[in-house]
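Case study 2.
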Amino acid sequence: MIRSLFFATDPIALPALTALCQQTEIEVLALVTQPLRPSGRGRKQRESALVLGAQSLGLPIQRPHRLDSEEGDRILHQYQPDFCLVMAYGQIICRRHLDAIPGPWLNLHGSLLPRWRGAAPIERAIEAGDEETGMMFMAMEEGLDTGAIYSERRVKIGEHRTSSLRPVMGELAADLIREDLMGILQGEIPSKAQESEGSTYAKRLRAEEGWIDFMGAADVWSRRARAFDPRPGLTCVDPQGRRLKLWHCFAQEGGGDPGRIESLTSAGLVVQCEVGCLVVTELQIEGRKRMKVSDFVHASSLQIGEHLAFVGTC
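Prediction:
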C-alpha cells in the first residue's frame, strides 16, 4: 500500500478526499487541516463538512497551528507518508517538509495555471469574465502555485456563481484522483513545466471588495455579484440606512447617475451605474434571509429617484 497524508481545510476538498480513500492501492493516514476557528453570527467553533466527512471515513484529524514548526515535523515523522496530497489547505508547505518524504507533494489547484495562482482562483476567474476554468494536478514547490503540471480537467464558467461552481470544481478534483493519480505516482503521466507568460495572481477576497458604489460598468458589478456569492456579497445602504446585499443581478443599457433607483417592479430593482444599469432580481435586507425581488417589492418603501449609498461613506 502507498501511504498518504491529505492536507485540506476548505470543504471543497471533500469529494477529493473521498475519492482518495476509495483508491485500493492507497492508504490515507490522516487529514491535516487548520485549527477550529469561531465562525458565524454566534462566533462558535463548528466542525467543517470536510472534517465531519473525514471522521465518517474513519480518519484521524491533525490540526497544527503552524505547519512550518515542530508540530508539522512531528506529523510527518509520526505518519511517514510516501506522498502527500494538498487541496485548499491554506498554509505554505516549507522546503524542509517538501524534502522530508520519499515521494512527491501533489496539489489540486482550481484554475488553469499559470492564470490565477493564489488563494481565490474560482472567484477571480468569474469576476474577470473568464470563459472557462478548471482543476489541475500539479507538483508542489517553494513558489506559489508555480510547480509543473501533470493533468487538468476544464469546465465552462457560463452563468455560474462561486456557490454553484465550487461543487463542480470539487468533483473535477475527485475525477483527477480517480483517473490520473496512480498514473502520476507510477510515472506514467509526465509533468510539464508551467509557462510564466500569462500568469495572474488571485488575491484573497476582502469584505470591502463587496461594497458597491455603482461606479464603473454594470456588467462588471454583475460579474462581481456572481463571484462574491456566498462571500462577501455586494453590499450597499438604502435611504433608511439599512444594508442591502444584492445577490442576483444582470446588466442592461442606461445609467449615468450612480446609485439612482430607476424602477422597482416584480421583475427587478433597476439601479443606475456610471455605465449601464444593474437589474437586481434577488437581494437581502440586513438581518433577514435572501428574497426574490418579487417578494421584496410588496414590503419595500424605496422610491424611484432615491439613491442606494456606498457602505464606505455611511
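The two ends are 60 Å apart (CA to CA).
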